[in-house]
Amino acid sequence: MEKVEENNVEVSTMGSIQEPEKSYKVANSDPNSEVKFKLTLEPTMMLLLLGVNISMMVQTNLFEERMCLHTALGQNKSVNCHNLTAAEQEIIQPAVADLQMIKNLIETLVPSFMALFLGPWSDVNGRLPLMLSSISGVVLSNCMYCVFSTIPALPPITFLLCSLPLAVSGGTGALFIASFCYIVDITDFRTRAFRLGVLQFFISFGSIIGSLLSPLLYNKSSTYAFALSSMSTIAGLLYTSFFLKETVIIKEGVNTKLFNVTLVKDMWLTVVKQRFGFLRSIIIISAVVLTLNLIILFGEDALMYMYLQKQFSWTLENFTLFNTYATLLSACIPAAGLYVLSTRLQIPDMYLATAATGLRIIEKVGLAFAVHTWQFYAVKIFGCVVFTSEPLVRSQLSKIFPSEDLGKIYAFISAVEGFGMLLGSPIYTTAYNMTIHNFANFIFFLSSFLGTFVLVLYILTLFLLSRSTKSENLLIDN
């Protein structure tokens, strides 16, 4: 490493910059373990996403049924609440969208606040406690859905109680903070983007299996679906408990208090402290682009099934086939692409993220104008790179900031993502409810507009990175 003392920064001969690290606290007994590939938390994430997708695919239909049964529409004997027509769905869907919006707010608000504490806490108390806590919340939530689905007399609003375990345990946000930090702990710079891509492949594979099983189970009973979802997430919890090893060396006398204001203060000081070049600005921009990406992703996902039900009379089986196809593309192509483009050819992470965003904009415009089923399948080819942006951005951050800062930086980003999503869900829900009768595809134009703004921010990040090092090769060999 070549020292650049006047800027107190290290410039790698490979071209990436890395601020000097302090004595690091990652447990790694094998000095060569960083270059060996073996599965660690990937099976955990696969089992969890399998269960989560089984549950999520059923929830919309279950909400529609219960909303129908507990409104005036359900009192009409000619209406079959278990098989609504397009006209009946148009009546029910605004109320269902509002219910899902409240559900998303519950599952986002508290975890966003807790993320401020959880990331820094895991830096000194370990990754596994954070994983086990968030997984336990998912398990309890699925078990509650399983029980509540057996009681038809319960009004739809009762299902909001199922979101409380997710909220108080840190939610999926805490799980992804821990998992990203875990991957950073066990990988080196060259393999990190690919390893994050492999993690995304296992997540997508679990999602595919869950999507395929969901309609089969729902045709028997929604309770069957939630039961299998519960068992899958319990299996993930047991795997994590017995097979994963802690990657952080816990020091004696460390403060184990969760709501430690000092940790939050340290996180904030880590984010805002003066850094070489424009590295501080890059943290802020990264948080914004990842937040906008999540707003687009979850805003559309919450409404896509209802949109396709209304516009094209799709059933759960139709949507499952489409969702499986899209997820399969998003699993295989990015993982293979990251291996070739990032690991082998060493193309810079941010170049790849920028290109992926451009393809994503094309996808959104295509979805907005699609009027036939085959068109939805065709344009999804452009959107298959949607899940590469987050691992690429996090991989880039891990290459330019010291390891002891990453947990704090990821926690800050997770908190910003959560608070941003508090705005995103109401925005998409309001837009859909306002345009459902004559311009329901407006949500895709909204996504393309937000995607264009993200593209501009990626280009700005490339410029700032080029001005944040004296190495001419920063964006080529990182």
Automatic annotation (TrEMBL):
Compartment annotation: Membrane
Membrane topology listed for this record: Multi-pass membrane protein
Membrane spanning residue stretches: 130-151, 157-184, 196-218, 224-244, 277-299, 319-341, 409-428, 440-465
Top-level taxon of origin: Eukaryota
Gene3D superfamilies to which the protein is assigned, alphabetical: MFS general substrate transporter like domains
Listed GO CC annotations: membrane
Pfam families, alphabetized: MFS_1 (PF07690)
Region (Disordered): 1-24
GO molecular function, one term: transmembrane transporter activity
Keywords annotated in UniProt: Membrane, Transmembrane, Transmembrane helix
Chief site of localization: membrane
Keyword field contains Ribosomal protein: no
Protein name (Swiss-Prot/TrEMBL): Proton-coupled folate transporter
